[in-house]
Design brief:
The chain has a four-stranded antiparallel sheet with strand order 1-2-3-4, covered by helices on one side. The N and C termini lie far apart (about 105 Å). It has five helices and four strands. By secondary structure, it is of the alpha+beta class. The longest helix is centred in the N-terminal third of the chain and has 16 residues. It is globular. It has a domain of about 90 residues: Nuclear Transport Factor 2, Chain: A (Roll).
């Protein structure tokens, strides 16, 4: 009987330690899938907004050469820290391509940890995430106007009259 209880306890400890329902485990799955360009897998642990961003990135990735896609598969992710605060967590990580620490915001929705990848902050959901705010675009400029050359005004509005 003791052997059976020990075995059950061992399985329980193993199941808890390998839980994929933690911010760290979900972040590892998202980051590895994202950097390896396996967008379908990344979407499994992503918020709805993140899935939309991944769809756009996936479309752009079709234009990349196969050599770049193969290189991406070699990227390694290292989770440095996880700070969990209620239903939000910030995961700090580095990649084999960059030793600079980056952050990924995780959110808990319906009991499941999901990556909250945002366009606004360069993508990796840093603290102060504004992904729920509308994106503002830079004002467009007239790219058809001829550039000013020395001694020639750019437009009649800026000409100096003597």
């Amino acid at each position: 009987m003791k052997k059976i209880l020990s075995f059950v306890a061992l399985i329980a400890v193993f199941a808890i330690s390998c839980s994929s329902n933690s911010p760290k485990a979900a972040a590892e799955k998202f980051l590895n899938s994202f950097f390896h360009m396996e967008y379908k897998e990344a979407k499994e642990v992503s918020t709805e907004e993140t899935k939309k961003v991944l769809d756009m990135i996936e479309q752009f990735s079709t234009m990349m050469p196969d050599s770049s896609k193969q290189s991406a598969k070699k990227i390694k992710i290292e989770i440095k820290d996880v700070k969990e605060e209620g239903d939000k967590a910030t995961v700090t990580y580095t990649t084999s391509e960059s030793t600079q620490e980056q952050k990924l915001t995780m959110v808990k929705q319906n009991g499941k940890w999901l990556a909250n990848y945002s366009k606004q902050d360069g993508g990796m959901g840093a603290e102060g995430d504004t992904s729920n705010e509308p994106m503002t675009e830079e004002p467009m400029t007239d790219s058809t106007a001829a550039p000013a050359t020395e001694g020639t005004p750019a437009s009649p509005d800026t000409a100096t009259h003597q």
